[in-house]
User: Fold Prephenate dehydrogenase from Streptomyces axinellae.
Amino acid sequence: MRTALVIGTGLIGTSAALALSARGVRVHLADSDHEQARTAASLGAGIEGEPAEAVDLAIVAVPPAHVAATVCDVQRRGLARGVIDVGSVKGGPRREVTEHGGDLTTYLGSHPMSGREQSGPLAATADLFEGRPWVLTPTPGTDTEVLNLALELVSLCGAVPVVMDADDHDRAVALVSHTPQLLSSLVAARLEDAAETDVRLCGQGVRDVTRIAGSDPAMWVDILSANPGPVAEILAQVAADLENTVRSLRELDSAEETQRISGAEGVEALLRRGNAGRARVPGKHGQAPTAYQTVIVLISDQPGELARIFADAGAAGVNIEDVRIEHATGQQAGYVQLNVVPGAVRPLEKALRESGWSLRRQ
Assistant:
């Protein structure tokens, strides 16, 4: 791939353009919002404006509702030898391309499974897709050259190609992406009118659950409008679980012991199902989850504190597998949770104490 056209210079489009430009591909940038395209160009993502002659690959990074029309426009005008879109829904747009008279042989739907809560070109990074799955949904009629260009795009962006049927993809993302977004927003919505004293008690749990609730509502309306059926089906199942859980909690509050026992069993059953589901989420490098143990360190909110902790861990020969920070409310301090393999806990704790760090017992 020597040349590419990116249509839509938001987070995903600009990130792909940055990755391609960094690897020597000549990238042209187009967007209905010319200011956004200029911003992406100023970041080094490419050259603003459509190419004078056909490029190797056009990357359509527009909202799902506009994918089909944009793909067909690219094909009709001969702007590229192949066209790939990066929208989060695949079945509907592909059918719409056919309805609009588009050519499925030179079009391939795809979805990079990566993103951020922020949107727009200023949130873009060239490494956004590093190590992340990138779904490709070719049909039996997809031209081999277009598939190869798509695979090259995925490789240049550092992602991992995953081939799926378009409708299977939509059901999968309804479960692992679209429904979690709504559930996060539902929990966060409870905080909107909560008393200030209550909100100040927020810990890491509520921060984890509500993190993606900060996403752009307009963007998510576009996404959910393109995949409402599968999302509604999963939410209906969640609603049934919620109804059963509410019933179990009511029983726990009962004066009758038999009902309290039944309620406890109902809540425990849900929590155990949650344990089983969580255990299936791929861990580091996509491998099966590892039972890491946590070392908790008190740090002050000063420059260089995290670097010192990692340096001390490295000097002790301990690899930090994962890390998170829990901020202390109203204080210039917090806790760093260092996840390590079980055998590394004692040597890490010993090294950190010798270096003067304060550790907190779990």
